[in-house]
Write a structure and sequence with these properties.
The chain is of the alpha+beta class. 24% of the residues lie in helices and 24% in strands. The protein has helices at residues 3-7, 34-37, 52-58, 125-143; strands at 9-11, 15-17, 23-25, 43-45, 82-86, 92-97, 103-108, 114-118. The strands form three sheets. Strands 5-6-7-8 form a four-stranded antiparallel beta sheet, with no helix packed on it. Strand 7 and strand 8 (114-118) form a beta hairpin. The radius of gyration is 16 Å and the shape is globular.
Amino acid sequence: MAIENDTHVVPQGAFKLIPKHELRRSLAFKGLNREDLGKLKKYYHFRNVQSGDKKELLETTQSVFRENIFDPIADDEPKGAWSLQVNSSETLGIVKSLLWPGYVAYSVSGTKPVSYTHLRAHETRHDLVCRLLLEKKKKKKKKK
């Protein structure tokens, strides 16, 4: 078990295979709709596939442009390894790993951005917001 292998999560459709069997962000992805935001089966591991069925699918031309090319987190063992919460306005889905406490991924309905982070043991929500804002500021400086 490794945190990178077990926790990187993306919503269905965020990535696709092109005919060369290269992985790309899907330009057609507009985010999950409100109904799908609260369905665990719509979230997938962003890693090399590990299930035999998915590996076989990737070897065929049928895998190109499919939305479900990754292993779904809903199939993880043990069952109940993930928690999914949707906010009251049904616009934000928050996925938490119960095996790796502190890991949080989120998806905003109707938007392309997908994000995840791992809360450090000593961090509060306020610390996380400050860390994310600092990272955003660093990225802007690098682009200049």
